[in-house]
Amino acid sequence: MIALFIKAQYEPNKVSFEGQVSALGSYSPLADRQAFIGVRYIPELNFDFRIDTFKRLYIEASANINLGLSFIPVDSATFSGNVLPYRVWARYTSRQFELRMGLQKIDFGSATLLRPMQWFNQIDPRDPLQLTNGVNALLGRYYFKNNANLWFWVLYANEKPRGFDAVKTSKWIPEFGGRAQYPVPRGEMALSYHRRTANSHNIAGITPYPYIQEDRVGLDGKWDVVVGLWFEISYIHKYRDVEFLTNQTLMNLGTDYTFGIGNGLNIMAEHLLIAYDYKPFRFQNLVNVTALSISYPFTMDDRLTCITAFSWETKGVSSTLYYEHQFKRVTGYIMAYYNPKTQIGIQQNELVNTFSGPGVRLMIVYNH
What we know:
By secondary structure, this protein is mainly beta. The protein contains 1 helix and 19 strands. The chain has one helix at about 1-10, and strands at about 15-25, 35-50, 55-70, 75-95, 95-105, 135-145, 150-155, 170, 175-185, 185-200, 210-225, 225-240, 245-260, 265-275, 285-295, 300-310, 315-325, 330-340, 355-365. It has an 18-stranded antiparallel beta barrel.
């Protein structure tokens, strides 16, 4: 890697500085802190070094700088702020191979709203910016000429739960895995595997094991057959008795279609089943969630989107409606939402404030 870096100094290269500023204000009358205003800046520095016709070295470094103020009008307020690395990675690419190392986003799978195979990120489908923290990893991908591809990865120094993780990861023990993706008629299928060492100290009522070997296997596929069809299945097994968290089975089935109404009305539906079992595939402790996304573009610059999820066990409904308008360099969002106190199925993360109850939010995003 160092030799390639030195060689790149003698080749045409490009350095760029970009960034995204987002400012938002929200009001949720039933939340503990009813009002919130905040601003986030993600500056991004990129180095693109051309080694030869097919080989390149690309480096990206960005930070997440955010300030927030939660308050009860004319009463009390709580201030928060952080400066954290967001992405810091280097990538070497050749004609059919790439290798990326550092703090990065790793994302795969076929589902969009309720994602069993969101193993390494926490993208909230209700977030128009799709923000998520990254993982420290080495990722390699090889692309065959028939569009099949192989992935392998090694993760290290990651601790926080990701996706539907029931427990945290033991931070200083490497994780590893891979994925094989292959084209099939009218679509593609993939098989994935990941091994990590989990830590159950963060779960009350469960024996606090510091080291739990865990295997997970995922299978997903997607087809375009008049309508879009896809599925995702993820099975997770822990080699310790952590009661109903010993085995997790997650299954998603989804479809979408764009109707020829006006400028095109897109409707997407997904159903997610989660089973937590002491013994595998007993399907005794079930969670069923159905999600629906409806999106309509009024013009090239205006779009209305509604995302709703329903939990069949709790009868809880989460719904977000937002209108977005694209100006020359600024995008504005007007949102109305309702979230139950306990949300299951819709992915959440610490980068997006999700308040329970009804609320409204205004957000402005500027990219430079």
